[in-house]
Design brief:
This protein has 460 residues and is an alpha/beta fold. It is 58% helix and 10% strand. It is built from 18 helices and eight strands. Strands 1-8-7-2-6-3-5-4 form an eight-stranded mixed sheet, sandwiched between helices. Helix 16 links the parallel strand 7 and strand 8. The longest helix has 93 residues. The protein is flat and about 125 Å long. It starts with a helix and ends with a helix. 27% of the residues are buried.
Length: 460
């Protein structure tokens, strides 16, 4: 009760300051919070840094913008820390109130148990006396039984065997064959039922028809799962264009080129929900397929956090998109690739602020130059649900392709990512289902592709 009353007074103070962060911050328990004191110190340092930088740079200088952005982040963290301290006081008060109620209930229960124990003790004494009486009767009965047994042994008894006992051919119980048969039947139905139950709980992407029905977006292509461990999926179109995998990327290329009635999109953003879904391999193979069709194609590695395209093509990465956007290098960042008609822009060194660089005006300026020089521009970007880089890039690109991995990406993840893109009015061209296993799905989709593919081999 004492603890609850102390916390209740503190809770009333916090409740009175609800909605007023300045008043809430003046409460001693909030003011003495170590994390809040640390944030105040960092805010003071940030304000001093801005004051010093303002003497050297103007308001629109990137350094000043970064410093003010850091100050806003620290102030936001301070507000969150004040709210966390207030919620901590509220939680402690509610916990103390709950503990008081719990202890009162336990006290009442203990009192009732004590009264019940007295009643049981009385019953125990009654039963104890009954046990002593029964024990005396039992001893007397045992004595009489022994006397009777001795008397019977003295008398002679004649016994005749009327029918000899026979050993049975099989035991009555357990009936092994019946049990084994029942076990097989129950196990079979149980396994089938469990399989259907697991399939019902699985919310991951499985078939193109289901994806279109549940998301409302068209499926531009279905990429089969690469089963050979010694091969790289990024080299499918370049080294093995006539395999199922290579033809799937060619079909994706055709879908992209025919997606518009007037002209195919010139700039395309390739992204996914999370990492590991195949967005980079899709961007690389789609770019190679476009270049092999005669389109002058530019592949840009816009994933400034975990870049990989320069490793796939074996290119240097001392300068690239990040150095140009930061103003460190000029616009001469385009590299030639081993594929005809395909040029590549590597990401450059990983910057500390990728989102800010991708949102700069320099990207929009250089995109105008790229659109005049190339037929198709394909951007590989970071995943949607982890960082905001793709949202920033979509402002300078005409359309975007979302890659989802079959059996891994869930419909909830797709709905969240697509809703986020639609909120910023990004033009979504469609979905690409990657790592699709046609045998496990039993889908007619791939049987249909195989039919056309086998018939067209001789024409390619």
């Amino acid at each position: 009760e004492t603890r609850r009353k102390e916390l209740e007074d503190l809770f009333r103070m916090v409740e009175a300051a609800s909605g007023d962060l300045t008043r809430a911050e003046s409460i001693p328990v909030v003011q003495n919070d170590p994390m809040l004191q640390t944030l105040k110190s960092e805010i003071l340092k940030a304000e001093q840094s801005i004051s010093e930088l303002s003497k050297k740079y103007g308001e629109k200088h990137p350094t000043m913008k970064a410093a003010r952005s850091d100050l806003q982040v620290l102030r936001g963290k301070r507000e969150q820390e004040i709210l966390r301290a207030v919620r901590s006081v509220q939680n402690e008060y509610e916990l103390a109130l709950s503990n008081e109620r719990s202890l009162r209930q336990r006290l009442s229960s203990t009192k009732a148990s004590a009264l019940n124990l007295n009643e049981k003790f009385i019953q125990y004494e009654v039963l104890k006396r009954a046990v002593e009486t029964n024990r005396q009767f039992y001893n007397a009965l045992v004595t009489k039984t022994k006397e009777q047994s001795i008397t019977e042994q003295i008398q002679s008894i004649n016994v005749w065997i009327l029918e000899a006992a026979q050993v049975p051919d099989f035991p009555i119980k357990p009936r092994k064959y019946r049990n084994i048969l029942l076990g097989i039947i129950v196990g079979l139905f149980g396994g089938v039922g469990m399989a259907f139950f697991v399939e019902y709980l699985d919310n991951s992407i499985k078939s193109p028809q289901e994806v279109e029905a549940r998301t409302g977006l068209p499926v531009l292509g279905v990429i089969p799962r690469l089963k050979e461990k010694n091969k790289k999926v990024e080299e499918a179109v370049l080294k093995e264009p006539r395999t199922h995998l290579g033809e799937s990327y060619k079909a994706l290329r055709t879908a992209v080129l025919l997606s518009s009635a007037e002209a195919p999109p010139k700039s395309i953003l390739v992204t996914s929900m999370v990492s590991g879904e195949g967005k980079t391999s899709t961007a690389v193979n789609l770019s190679v397929a476009m270049a092999m069709s005669g389109y002058s194609t530019l592949l840009v590695d816009g994933d400034l956090r975990r870049p990989n395209i320069h490793k796939i093509f074996g290119l240097g990465n001392l300068k690239g998109l990040s150095t140009y956007l930061a103003g460190v290098s000029d616009a001469d960042i385009i590299m030639e690739s081993p594929v005809k008609n395909l040029s590549i822009i590597t990401p450059g060194p990983v910057p500390p602020n990728p989102s800010e660089l991708l949102g700069s005006d320099r990207l929009g300026e250089i995109m105008k130059t790229f659109k005049k020089k190339f037929d198709i521009i394909i951007f590989d970007s970071a995943p949607i649900l982890t960082v905001a880089d793709s949202f920033v890039l979509s402002r300078n690109l005409e359309t975007c392709i979302v890659v989802a991995r079959a059996g891994k990406t869930t419909y909830e993840m797709v709905r969240r990512g697509v809703r986020s893109l639609q909120d910023i009015r990004a033009n979504i061209l469609g979905l690409v289902i990657n790592a699709y296993d046609e045998k496990s799905s039993g889908s007619y989709y791939y049987r249909h592709i195989d039919y056309h593919y086998i018939g067209d081999v001789g024409q390619q």
